[in-house]
Design brief:
Structural class: alpha+beta
Largest sheet: 7 strands, mixed
Oligomer: single chain
Number of helices: 4
Shape: globular
Radius of gyration: 17 Å
Strand order of the largest sheet: 2-3-12-11-6-7-8
């Protein structure tokens, strides 16, 4: 396995723009488009109009996943990594618990995107997500391609380490992005932060809010 050099003591966050502006502007490197209003609905943020998802290609166990694979389905995007001790397994387990309800509302797919491509091969990701549900997709790519995709969806991630090692943690957003059947970014579900508990999205509320979003 390849070695990586991790910056000593601290968290290296991939810069996604100033927090105060993160829901107000498009990335500077992209063409100017009509800006979306951000409507706070409590458990989620609604983008109106839905935001453009810029061209991307992610790797999966068999083949690749790109903008074309977003069409005609509602896609829930979760960032994480297979070595995650708490947030990821909790989130995927809870998404599984409401999956039938989501599918009753509309045709959905769940994409788990690894922010740890060094250790998470497409094959490993496939085995990992299939433990929770065989329909879940395990996706990743190199950081140079993953960075703009994460930036576009406002799902930051970064590496935590104290020394050069292959044993490290990855900090990542616990929010869940929702992309509509036209391939546009329409909503972001926010995690609950309760003292002593793993931050995760309230799945039952997400299922209810999903019905509202679909009916817009």
């Amino acid at each position: 396995m390849k070695k990586i050099i991790l910056i000593a003591v601290g968290v290296v966050f991939i810069v996604l723009g100033l927090l105060a502006r993160e829901f107000l502007v498009e990335p500077k490197s992209t063409p100017k488009l009509a800006q979306s209003a951000v409507i706070d609905k409590g458990d989620y943020r609604l983008f109106s109009p839905a935001k453009t998802v810029y061209e991307f290609v992610l790797n999966m166990n068999e083949g690749s996943f790109s903008n074309q694979d977003l069409m005609n389905k509602w896609t829930f995007v979760i960032f994480g990594y297979t070595y995650c001790p708490d947030v990821c397994p909790t989130t995927l387990t809870r998404v599984k618990s409401v999956l039938s309800s989501l599918n009753e509302t509309a045709n959905v797919q769940v994409a788990f995107v690894s922010a740890d491509p060094l250790r998470d091969t497409p094959q490993r990701l496939h085995q990992y997500v299939n433990y929770f549900d065989s329909s879940f997709l395990g996706l990743t790519t190199s950081h140079d391609k993953l960075f703009p995709f994460a930036q576009n969806l406002y799902l930051p991630y970064g590496i935590v380490a104290v020394q050069k090692s292959e044993d490290y943690a990855v900090n990542h957003s616990a929010s869940i992005a929702l992309i509509n059947p036209q391939g546009k970014y329409i909503a972001q579900f926010k995690p609950q932060h309760i003292a002593g508990e793993v931050p995760t999205v309230d799945m039952k509320q997400m299922a209810k809010s999903f019905k509202d979003i679909v009916s817009l």
